[in-house]
Amino acid sequence: MKDLLRTAREKKNLKTREVAQLLGIDQALISKFESGNRKPTREQVTKLASVLDIDFETLMVAWLKEKILYEIGDDTRFGIKAMMVAESEMKYELTQKKREVSASLLRILNEIDSLKKLLDQKRTFDSFRIAQALELEYTFESNRIEGNTLTLRETDLVINEGLTISGKSMREHLEAINHHEAIGYIKQLMESGFSFTERELLSIHNLILRGIIPEDAGRYRKVQVMIKGSSHMPPQPYLVAKEMENYFLWYESEKKKLHPVVLAAELHERLVTIHPFIDGNGRTSRLVMNLILLQHGYVIANIKGDYDNRMNYYNALETAQTKNNKEDFLLYIAQIEKESLERYLSIIG
Predict the structure, then answer these.
(1) Which is the catalytic residue, given 179, 180, 205, 275?
(2) Fewer CB within 10 Å, N side or C side of the chain?
(3) Which residues neighbour 172 within 8 Å (Cβ) at sequence distance 6 or greater?
(4) Nearest-CA neighbor of 272 among 305, 239, 244?
(5) CATH class held by domain 103-348
(6) Which CATH class is domain 2-75?
């Protein structure tokens, strides 16, 4: 593990002092990690993987291997037997976890993956104009969920023609422009081979609130908030930073284990449940969800903003937040992605 850390740091041309600053720990600890005289904590391993661009699974395996060997010491015979028993128990637990995905959700995920395979065969029929039209619809619907009254045609005129719509507020105009630019940003991330970190999240939110509430754009909230129409109470402001740290730790540990649609839905639900921003949480959460979907080759899951769809969406979220049951929300997002794939395929023929 020590060689892995040193090699990755040198590859990025970082000094131990710079790595220490990024992790918020003493420089001497980094040197001890690299010399093997000190072992990082699990949380530090996660941060090191992100900062040094090391595959999280590779680093975790190396870290756990060293921990196991240290604990076994000279008790090789007993150690091997203990590892065999542990392997058996872990395989059983893994099987149990797989069963946690309901039959209904598994069925939709299988249908989604069949549609994606078909889409992969037709990628040559993609066109800029189709993508532009679908992204416009996404901006329109995502803003409509939050109460924006611009029509689809008016949204088009604001974004693509630079027109001002009479009778509509400046905020509604900025919401359309900002969301459109946020989609452009996540597409840039896709092209650059990004890793999803706090920096990307705050950049997305900064674009969403730019010019609307500039002092809070790209910043976590400092006051308590309530979600209109919901009985869920987001965490107190002093807990937000820690909750968000746990959010990214969860992402790093689960990003290669979960089906991409489930991962995207979970990131959406977890973010909007923390409600880390004073405003723009819904739009930001949906953009994060779609960033993950696009990263894995799926299409934008466009939740409609009409009354029925909005209520189904809110009710599924409420159940996840207040009853600790995410099944309805995961099913809802999976169904939206399936329908979005079907529509995309019908358009490109």
Answers:
(1) 275
(2) C
(3) 143, 148, 149, 150, 165
(4) 244
(5) mainly alpha
(6) mainly alpha
